[in-house]
Amino acid sequence: MTAELYINDCKWKGIIEPDATLLEFLRSNGYYSVKQGCDSCSCGICTVWVDGFPVLSCKYPACRAAGKRITTIEGTGSSANLLGMYLSAEGAEQCGYCSPGLIMTVLALEKENPDASEEEVETYLAGNLCRCSGYQLQTAGILKYLRRKNNE
Amino acid sequence: MNEQSVGCSFPKKDAEAVTAGAAVYTDDIAPEHCLIIKLLRSPYANAMIESIDVSKAYESEGVVCVLTWEDVPQIRFTYAGQCYPESSPYDRYILENHVRYIGDPVAIVAAVTEKAAETALKKIKVKYKVMDAVADFEKALDSSVIIHSEPDYHNNVPIGGDPCRNLICSHYSDYGDADSAFESCDVTLEDTFYTKANAQAMMETFRTCAYYDYQHRLTIISSTQVPFHCRRIIAMALNLPQSKVRVIKPRVGGGFGAKQSLVTEVITAFVTNKTGRPSKLILSRKDCFTASNSRHQMRLHVKMGATKDGIVRAIELDVLANGGAYGEQSYPTSLLVGHKTIPLYAHAAYKHKAEFVYTNLMPAGAYRGFGATQGCYAVETMANRMAHVLGIDAAYFRIINIPAAGEKMPAYFGDVLLSSKLKRCIETGCQRFHWKERCKPKETENGRIRAVGMAITMQGSGVPMKDVCCATIHLNDTGFYTLQIGAADIGTGCDTVLSQIAAQVLECSINQIIPEGVDTDHSPYDKGSYASSTTYVSGQAVMEAALSLKEKIIQEGAARLKIKAEDCWLDGQGVHSRNDETIFISLKDLSEQLVLKPDCDWLTATADHCCIYSAPPFMAGFAEVEVDRSTGKVLVTDFLGVIDCGTVINPALACAQAQGGIVQGIGMALYEDTEYTDTGKIRNNSFFQYRIPTRKDIPHIQIIFEPAYEPTGPFGAKSIGEVVINTPCPAITDAIYNAVGVTASKLPVKAEDIWKSLNLQNKDNN
Amino acid sequence: MWTVKEYVMPKSIEEACNALNERKGNCILGGGIWTQMSGRHICKAIDLSKLQLNYIDELEDSVRIGSNCTLRELETNRMISEIYGEYFQNCFKGIAGVQFRNMVTVGGSICGCYGFSDITASFLCLDAKLSFYKHGITALSFFINNKQSFKKDILLYAELPKKRNIAQYASFRANFNDIPIINTAVSVDRGQYRIVIGARPGIAQLAEKASLAAGEGVLPETAAMEAVEEMTFGSNMRGSKEYRKSLAEMLICDCIRKIAVDERVL
């Protein structure tokens, strides 16, 4: 299918394979931050934004993205780096494989609910698995990030 | 100025790159235009390939090669990443005409695209002679179905195996006269416990790519914990000299032991070797669950005898384990089940027997804890039951039984325990968990019941007389150091921790230490990241190398300052005189002279280390659960881990390791299940079916460190990587018992099992 | 992995329906998740994204939810919360994660007829009506029992009665976001109860006799017991039929009691 879409505000035009997933499409275009963790939409590692909403790129049909704005971690400006610093300051970043998907989800949460409580953070991130860190230090880093303006 | 490094919670060296989503993992850096490898897998648990027709597949568009058992070197090897000579049987070919589990590879297709490879797979015609299969490990020993009867099956070292009996290995050890000791006990309890073949479930699946470099050397990039073992095994399996093979470890998205065995490496190397072209094999999550390796499923029979005042006098541990279709990692696991559990009962005579069997199921491998986890569940659960029967507090029961530093541990290689704060761990845990106050079960507002349980554990730090780890460090111009290690950081943070050790010795900023990634061409030999060795064994090598380099730098600095070396000290700024602070040469100036000038002297130091003693870390775990009696559902509502891992080099990373391990333990206790069909197919083959805990399933987890200074470890450190997973299972099952009186002898403890037991209880009461 | 020969995004319902009926291997995509996971080989995948079927409209007596509306859109819609309270939040909170719910559509869930479907159970309890392009308006309960007849039709919207419905949703899951071992929903409208049990593991069904009995004022325990008696349950990896039965009875009883409290409040 011929399609036109935006990846991180960069226009892309070309032919998309009819059964390509958004994950495959993005990685084949050099966006290696988007990773695959499972094949059952269970881990959240492949999270990107479509028109600002977090989705699982491993099962989002790439053709459906025609006309839409896709955002990967490379397109979040300094926010991802800043959140990453908060996470690694807590020791929460271990193997790092779940980090890009986690960061995309947290940045989406920040847009929807910047004053999220700890419980709301954990509920919003229920679909983001991590096998290394035990989650708690991630939550600590995320809350510090969300509250950073209060601490300035 | 002296910089302090050890004990500081520095962020990981690779944090910035990985959190920014940089292309640093295997599939991110694989060469463009790699051939994509797909595997045709056996649909049968036990079958001979009578014929295999790949002609249509070969003709399929985009296909470059199709390989079958007829194409492989007739060389037996093992996938086990262990020091050579491995204690795993050489029971594998790359492909064989005998397939031994559902998922065993039958054919290899390499094509230019994934779709082309998958289309070609469907065109391969295989005629199988289906045979009876052993899908129940309790029926495997001496079964009429023999899984390995190949004439070139062999073992490097005796491991008590007998493939004619489907016995991979066996182990027996004892101390004292356990039979008499049992007779002298006031109470003897016994029970049989079952654990499942838990999946490591690291977030990055197995993947490897391979290519020939400009010297026509086979170069492998793999998500592995054991780059040097990979090199050796690939060379062996393909009948190549090791000098023609190079293995590079990039960033790795977790392993937890899974990647201590080879899974994708040999096949990928084989394809590139055959075709001359770059290739890659990325395992799907489904294949990870069904065609790689997992924890050993076990049946553990425990008999424990104690005096009425709570001293355990005798332990008998009889283990049957499911090694699956291939025997890698079985023998060392069979040792740890007892070695890392029985020594906690210092006054006990014991018998430890283990038999690991072949089955027609997915092979077992290494998973954090490596036998100690299963053993801890069984022995600690029995200890808790003993405490209940004797009417003794479970924590106090442990205190009066554990060994103290300075004591000999007959069950632990006869070694003298050099450091331990386990007693303090238990005491601190009791205090901070409010153990005494919470011992009485409590009804909650919503009609549920809360109760607590605890357990202790130990592990090792490296494998004594086996694990060889080396480190090289050199001084660059402008005054920074390159640290070359073979220890594979798989998310554990060893790059950072080892840099901290080097920085502490060299009294410089950690930012002056650049750890290099592992590449068998550049890195000094290291057996790899397993057996909780990177801090303790590799760290010792780093420390010795750094000390050696420090001495050399001081010598050179002193010579240039025209003073004696013993009157100098070094820090991150340079070489200083002890007696006159104006006498100083900066590291920048010194290094430039050493590296760039005509009278150069490239300063480098290498050290190797093989531990002769495996310093045990210890942990006390305390769990609170809430049980809903109407549904049987169990939630862990609180957990405290108090850990003696020796000096804590990086508290934040150690805390993350601990919390991560505890969550894995909670998963093993309550959520993670591996079920087989009658024909041996794994039913839990996705995250949809194999439920690892989410962040909503776990409690607040508190970690406290009670470090005992370990004289044989770098700056007093031991290890933390594995010990942290062991206590949740027994602590949680005892908390459940304390809450609702239900004993759990099988893992995972499912809500329905508790509901059934409670119903039976109610019937009995009525 | 699925395969698709052609991916189309029709600009009208008629175009979509024609495409669907062209040949057997053509299918409508909802979120597309389950379709991809099933490994289907599809000739033409028909994506309804361009048809603007993701509306949530408040009418005088009802709420119309476009078939392409995502679960997350429904979950976060203020008007829906005002009318139905936390009913849909309770229904959706255990479904995978936010990203998943941003993709799964109401139409895809309902037309997929998945046994574990929380949406089907919640909609059935509110006596949803479905509007199909060819078949017109049909009750969800009729659709569930006759889904084959609708295979070549396109769901346009689901319509829920807009009353001060008092409805409770409850499910039991092994962990926070697993598919349910059982799901239940109870609603009451002017004394008429609807008791629904789903994930049996079979698809949601209305317990008609128990619903009538509840309306006649029997004790919650009695209504719950009658509801499970008139249903069939099965065993699978997640639970045995006996366990499901026990859970269903307990959850229905809880739902009825909570409704009684809500009724008094209102």
Short description:
The complex is a heterotrimer of chains A (152), B (766) and C (266). Chain A has helices spanning 22-28, 78-89, 99-112, 118-124, 136-146, 148-151; strands spanning 2-7, 10-15, 47-50, 53-56, 69-71.
Task: Describe the protein in words.
The complex is a heterotrimer of chains A (152), B (766) and C (266). Helices cover 36% and strands 15% of the residues of chain A. Chain A has helices at 22-28, 78-89, 99-112, 118-124, 136-146, 148-151, and strands at residues 2-7, 10-15, 47-50, 53-56, 69-71. Chain A has a five-stranded mixed β-sheet, covered by helices on one side. In chain A, α2 (78-89) packs across α3. In chain B, β20 (468-475) and β21 form a beta hairpin. The radius of gyration of chain B is 27 Å and the shape is globular. Chain B has 766 residues and is an alpha+beta fold. Chain B starts with 14 loop residues before the first helix and ends with a helix. Chain C is α+β, with helices and mostly antiparallel strands and 266 residues long. Chain C has three domains: 3-49, no CATH class; 51-161, 2-Layer Sandwich (Uridine Diphospho-n-acetylenolpyruvylglucosamine Reductase, domain 3); 167-265, CO dehydrogenase flavoprotein, C-terminal domain (Enolase-like, domain 1, 2-Layer Sandwich). Chain C contains twelve helices and twelve strands. Chain C has helices at 13-22, 33-37, 71-76, 78-84, 87-92, 98-101, 106-112, 118-125, 140-145, 208-215, 220-229, 241-265; strands at residues 3-8, 26-29, 41-47, 56-58, 62-66, 129-132, 136-139, 155-161, 166-172, 182-189, 192-198, 205-206. In chain C, the strands form three sheets. Chain C has a five-stranded antiparallel β-sheet. Chain C starts with a strand and ends with a helix. The relative contact order of chain C is 0.11. Chain A binds chain C through residues 1, 16, 18-19, 21, 39-42, 44, 47, 53-56, 59-61, 63-64, 66, 105, 108, 123-128, and chain C through 1-9, 29, 31-33, 36-37, 42, 45, 47, 49, 72, 93, 96-100, 102-103, 176-177.
Secondary structure layout:
The complex is a heterotrimer of chains A (152), B (766) and C (266).
Chain A: E1 2-7, E2 10-15, H1 22-28, E3 47-50, E4 53-56, E5 69-71, H2 78-89, H3 99-112, H4 118-124, H5 136-146, H6 148-151
Parallel strand pairs in A: 1-5
Antiparallel strand pairs in A: 1-2, 3-4, 3-5
Chain B: H1 15-19, H2 26-29, E1 35-41, E2 47-53, H3 55-59, E3 63-67, E4 98-99, E5 105-111, H4 114-122, E6 125-130, E7 167-175, H5 178-183, E8 187-195, E9 207-212, E10 218-222, H6 227-238, E11 245-248, H7 265-275, E12 279-282, H8 285-290, E13 297-306, E14 312-324, H9 330-339, E15 349-358, H10 372-390, H11 394-399, E16 408-409, E17 415-416, H12 422-432, H13 435-438, E18 442-443, E19 449-458, E20 468-475, E21 481-485, H14 494-506, E22 513-516, H15 534-561, E23 568-570, E24 574-577, E25 584-586, H16 587-596, E26 604-610, E27 618-627, E28 634-644, H17 651-671, E29 701-705, H18 728-740, H19 751-765
Parallel strand pairs in B: 1-12, 10-11, 14-15, 21-22, 28-29
Antiparallel strand pairs in B: 1-5, 2-4, 2-6, 3-5, 7-15, 8-13, 9-10, 9-12, 13-14, 16-17, 18-19, 19-27, 20-21, 20-26, 23-24, 24-25, 27-28
Chain C: E1 3-8, H1 13-22, E2 26-29, H2 33-37, E3 41-47, E4 56-58, E5 62-66, H3 71-76, H4 78-84, H5 87-92, H6 98-101, H7 106-112, H8 118-125, E6 129-132, E7 136-139, H9 140-145, E8 155-161, E9 166-172, E10 182-189, E11 192-198, E12 205-206, H10 208-215, H11 220-229, H12 241-265
Parallel strand pairs in C: 1-3, 2-3
Antiparallel strand pairs in C: 4-5, 5-8, 6-7, 6-8, 9-10, 10-11, 11-12
Helix pairs in contact in C: 10-11, 11-12
